[in-house]
Design brief:
There is one protein chain. By secondary structure, the chain is α/β, with parallel strands linked by helices. It has helices at 8-18, 47-57, 72-87, 106-117, 132-142, 168-173, and strands at 2-3, 29-34, 39-40, 61-65, 97-99, 122-124, 145-151, 187-193, 203-214, 223-233. Strands 1, 2, 3 and 4 form a 4-stranded mixed sheet that branches. A 4-stranded antiparallel sheet has the order 8-7-10-9, with no helix packed on it. The chain starts with a strand and ends with a strand. The mean pLDDT is 94.
């Protein structure tokens, strides 16, 4: 089962696994959602788009509701409930391994592995260590299309980067030192087309808004402004 942020990195991790059917049987995707906003956490992808993604992937979707703001203990409690749900699934749906689209942040990988260490589940990282400039080009050449749905206030990106397509022009405009895949959290995306889908989601960038957000996920550290772009669905 693949950790599905709704963005390009998790989409590519899923694609890599599906390219190896002799080794992997992908049985579903899972993601955290914030009912307060009716969106995917962090990515800000609307749930209606998330569900369309799952439909075009042809995979079951498991939504894990979390509060806003979300202290770490609340997040971990939600994930434990999800693991219990997976354990109760029928034999043809349950899994023994979770896949994540992380690229090079050692602390994030260690956190995921530590949380699964005391369980019967394993963690794998299908795109780990791939050079991000090269991987960004591979994604574009494959036909992957994604909308930049969130820009972090802690990055060097401003409002103008939210609501753009993740394309060569976007990559060319990134300030020096910005990871081309946003692995340091500089930006987040919503994928609407690519080799992992059976057909594209007809969509375009929507309204861009600034929202005050807590500097830290647990609500501490004061507030800063983050920029978010909606995903507007078109007639399919």
């Amino acid at each position: 089962m693949v950790s599905w942020s709704s963005g390009k990195d998790s989409a590519w991790a899923l694609h890599v696994l599906r390219e190896q059917p002799d080794r992997y049987d992908v049985r579903g995707i899972f993601t955290t959602v914030t009912p307060h906003f009716d969106r995917v956490a962090i990515q800000a992808t609307p749930r209606r788009v998330l569900r369309l993604q799952a439909e075009r992937l042809g995979l079951p979707l498991y939504e894990i509701p979390i509060p806003y703001p979300c202290p770490n203990e609340a997040y971990e409690a939600a994930m434990r409930r999800f693991l219990d749900e997976v354990r109760r699934l029928p034999p043809d749906l349950t899994v023994d391994t979770f896949a994540f689209g992380d690229l090079f942040l050692e602390d994030i990988r260690e956190y995921r592995e530590a949380n699964l260490a005391e369980t019967e589940f394993d963690a794998i990282f299908p795109v780990w260590g791939k050079p991000t400039p090269e991987l960004a080009q591979t994604m574009l050449q494959s036909g992957l299309r994604a909308i930049v749905t969130a820009v972090s206030p802690s990055s060097r990106l401003d409002r103008s980067f939210a609501g753009r397509w993740f394309d060569q022009s976007f990559l060319d405009d990134l300030p020096e030192g910005t990871d081309p895949l946003g692995e340091n959290g500089e930006f987040h995306t919503c994928v609407v087309d690519g080799p992992m889908f059976d057909r594209a989601i007809a969509a375009k960038p929507g309204l861009v808004v600034g929202r005050p957000v807590s500097r830290n996920h647990d609500g501490s550290g004061g507030q800063v402004t983050a920029w978010y772009a909606d995903v507007e669905l078109l007639e399919d």
